[in-house]
TrEMBL record:
Segments crossing the lipid bilayer: none
Protein name: Molecular chaperone
InterPro entries per the UniProt record, alphabetical: DMSO/NO3_reduct_chaperone, TorD-like_sf, TorD/DmsD_chaperones
Keyword Chaperone: yes
Matches recorded under SUPFAM superfamilies: TorD-like (SSF89155)
Protein keywords: Chaperone
Organism: Undibacterium arcticum
Length: 204
């Protein structure tokens, strides 16, 4: 069963926080484990995002946080992403890219992470192609102050290779799933945010 421990890579993150990094970090937290009540309460009173185009998706998440308890969100998380046997919704890139878990896309991802000097900490259970982990990598690439390791070109390449090909399919699956309430709202925000990211990277 997925634990609530935070994702950590065995390399320091000394970069300044940005709005993009914060949102990637939030998505990483929400998809890695069901959020505690304290986080739901914080989000329920959070102001609208600074990105105007994100405000509709952000409002949906805020409303979901106001309406649902941590227990209800935990039950939803377990029903969608854990379940008995096969999960209702997979959160692994390999599944969407190849149809199977632990396949070639994961090997390619591990090679790219190694080139970046990143590796999964021993305490992290999920494989590196888990959506939360990929969001955490993006957060790191944005926030890191190492320009040789984390710059816009590297962000664009990592995003285009390991997230862009399948994230919309994940969002569609969640937004249309009858058991998804909180995570339908999270998926809607994710879709809008990733649309912005894709457009921004295309302009570079």
């Amino acid at each position: 069963m997925t634990t609530s421990q935070p994702l950590k890579f065995e390399t320091p993150d000394h970069g300044e926080e940005t709005a993009r990094a914060d949102l990637y970090g939030l998505l990483a937290s929400l998809f890695y484990a069901p959020p505690p009540q304290a986080l739901l309460d914080t989000l329920a009173t959070a102001p609208a995002s600074g990105y105007a185009v994100l405000q509709h998706g952000w409002r949906g998440l805020v409303e979901a946080c106001r309406e649902l308890s941590a227990e209800a969100v935990r039950d939803e998380y377990e029903a969608l992403f854990i379940g008995v046997g096969k999960p209702e919704i997979f959160l692994y890139g390999s599944y969407y890219l190849s149809g199977f878990l632990m396949e070639k896309p994961l090997i390619a991802l591990r090679n790219d992470l190694a080139q970046l000097g990143l590796q999964k900490a021993d305490t992290v259970i999920e494989s590196e192609d888990h959506f939360a982990t990929l969001c955490e990598v993006m957060r790191y690439l944005i926030a890191s102050d190492d320009v040789l390791q984390a710059n816009l070109a590297i962000q664009k390449n990592f995003f285009a290779t390991h997230l862009q090909p399948w994230v919309q399919e994940l969002c569609t699956a969640l937004e249309s799933h009858p058991q998804a309430r909180f995570y339908a709202a999270v998926a809607h925000l994710t879709r809008i945010f990733f649309d912005i990211e894709m457009q921004a990277f295309d302009m570079e």
